[in-house]
Amino acid sequence: MRPTYLEVNLSQLKQNLENIRAKVAPAKVLVVLKANAYGHGVDGVAPFIAPFADYIGVAIVEEGIHLRKMGIATPILVMGGTLPGQLPDFFEYDLTLAASSLDLLAAAEQLAESTRKRLKTHLKIDTGMERIGVREYEAQALIEKSLACSHLEIEGIFTHFANSEIMSLRGAIAPKQPPVNLEIAHLHWRAAQVSAEERRLATTSSALQLERFQEVLSIYEKLGAPHPPIRHTANSGATLSLPQSYYDMVRPGVMFYGVYPARDIKRTIDVNPALTWKSKVVYSKITQPGRGVSYGSLWQAEAPTRIVTIPCGYADGYFRRITNQAQVVINGKKYPQVGRVCMDQFMVNVGDDDVKVGDDVTLLGDGITAEDFADWAGTNEYEVMTNISARVPRVFV
Ligand SMILES: *Cc1c(COP(=O)(O)O)cnc(C)c1O
């Protein structure tokens, strides 16, 4: 096997799920397995975790099909946007549709009638992402239509938060008594009390989004109809800090993988990373001053120093832009990455230390966090994990 690989600790993932479940019970847990299980390798994660998950969430229909072909029997919600032409796959593979428009709902109902299969459907309400979904102010028509869809199983209704990871804002904003005319009152209240930065975000605070969702649910009461049995809103940020958002199910993604969605968020649930990115020294030598290291000769030694080469590069997801910023761990000690990260290799300065070909190297884990990596790359922890490419084998322990 390739010496550069990801080691994924499955029992840590299970522990994370158990800790989340303990906090949110009796709400169900949808485990988000999109994007190759946030880079962890869905082929290993899914069969192991599916028996413990109430629901599985994926972004695109192809991810759902992949899971079904692996034999996963747990309900699967395709959370992202769907084209009408993709609907037959939902029927064939028993995937749950996020009905994000009236047209999509109508097309699904029509297909359900003609195929005589009851497709599980969750209504997608847009309370503040402006991404996909029916806005709360136009939701009544969707709900009325869904109540008339006798061939679909309208199992759920959900929305998604735009700013759930922002702690300070949520603390400042959550009104003791929800304002009656929430939007206007809210913005007035905000304008009086908070900074310009917070005001920008106030248009889509979690508290406001939750109020809008609640407004949509009240349409059912008004119509004298029961709401769908599974109402859900909470991603990781909301699962950590907004218990009012749990309803019947939560949808933790990044947190299931042991990474918190923000640095300053209160860690009300204990989770730990499950992923270690490992490699081995493939070359070791003393470099002399005046000999630039790697493309562009961006770095050179001031005195003779040992430079080792690691067989991993930006084609593996080791971002090129972390050149001269990253660190790795070799034999329990951190060392700086030096010279341009190449497509398939990068170099590390180990100074006077006796580091040999074949020594173990940790690129992520062992004290190097996804947060560190995100800072070097100028991105977030999500992109760090999902960017680790398919060329890196996943080893499940
Ligand atoms: C990705 C995703 C989640 C999970 O988000 P995290 O921030 O990783 O917890 C939840 N819901 C939807 C709709 C998503 O697309």
Q: Please give the domain count.
A: 2
Q: Percent of residues in helical segments?
A: 25-40%
Oligomeric form: single chain
Secondary structure: number of strands: 18
**Which regions are unreliable across 5 or more consecutive residues at pLDDT < 50?**
168-180
Radius of gyration, rounded? Answer: 24 Å
Output the CATH topology of the largest domain.
TIM Barrel
Instruction: Note the gap between the termini.
Output: 15 Å
Widest β-sheet, arrangement of strands: 12-13-16-15-14-17-11-1-18
Average of the residue pLDDT scores: 93
**Content of β-strand:** 15-25%
Within CATH, the superfamily of the largest domain carries the name Alanine racemase
CATH class of the largest domain: Alpha Beta
Give the CA-based shape. Answer: elongated
Biggest sheet statistics? 9 strands, mixed
The total count of helices amounts to 14
What does this structure look like?
- There is one protein chain.
- This protein has helices at 10-24, 34-38, 42-49, 61-69, 87-92, 102-115, 139-147, 167-173, 182-193, 196-202, 206-223, 236-241, 370-377, 381-386; strands spanning 5-8, 28-32, 55-58, 76-78, 96-99, 119-126, 134-135, 152-158, 230-234, 249-250, 275-280, 283-287, 305-310, 327-330, 333-338, 346-351, 360-364, 394-396.
- With 397 residues, the protein is of the alpha/beta class.
- The strands form two sheets. A nine-stranded mixed β-sheet has the order 12-13-16-15-14-17-11-1-18, with no helix packed on it.
- Helix 7 (139-147) packs across helix 11.
- The two termini are 15 Å apart.
- 43% of the residues are buried.
- The structure holds pyridoxal-5'-phosphate (PLP).
- Pyridoxal-5'-phosphate binds at residues 32, 34, 79, 160, 235-236, 251-255, 261.
